[in-house]
Amino acid sequence: MKIDVITLFPDFFTSPLASGLLGKALEKNIATVNLVNPRDFTLDKHHRVDDEPYGGGVGMLLKPEPIFAAVASLSCLPKREIILLTPQGSPLNQTILQDLATNYQQLVLICGHYEGVDERIRYLADREISLGDFVLTCGEIPALALMNGVIRLLPGTVGKVESLKAESFEDGLLDYPQYTRPPIFQEWEVPEILRSGNHQKIEEWRRCEQIKRTQQRRPDLWEKWLNSQQKSD
What we know:
The protein is of the alpha/beta class. Helices cover 34% and strands 18% of the residues. It has two domains: 2-151, Alpha/beta knot, CATH 3.40.1280; 166-232, Trp Operon Repressor, Chain A. The protein is built from eight helices and ten strands. Strand 9 and strand 10 form a beta hairpin. Helix 4 packs across helix 5 (140-151) and helix 7 (199-217) crosses helix 8 (219-232).
């Protein structure tokens, strides 16, 4: 997969893209990341990418010309999705990550900054995505989160494919509790069922814990899961 990131701060990505599974995936060319600075496409001597909003207001807006020029400079693969990272977008979730990892060859991520972007930049985007109902200083943070979530789903990034199938949100539920050695730490003991060796009972226990944890911690997900179960029945 090819990922192009339109960003005013390419250095923001230097360490994360070289670390952990993300770094290994890029080394193996499972994905490639191309960082493009819109300042390189400005025509004035000060390389301005922002300006005051019409009608007044606090802060500055990203100008459309450098962003459009940066996107126009990119090569285009047949299955490409242009994404604007903005608090006004759809909340990022596992379903979106699966869709992007499965159905696209190229992602173009536009990172907003300052007080926002000129509204016309939205015409470039196929979709808008947000990390949630809160405001960050820049779009680089959600862009990195999206890249991490997508690349880890690409074949070859995670060693054991089974681990991708048994984790939070993959089937609409949160993950079950997990433990490792020692069997007793301070006053907390690993549930006896997990040490029993009875794999059928362990699977049943894990499923019950997934349901209970989702119901307690994320009633919104619980309702969606219940509805999906009723439809499948």
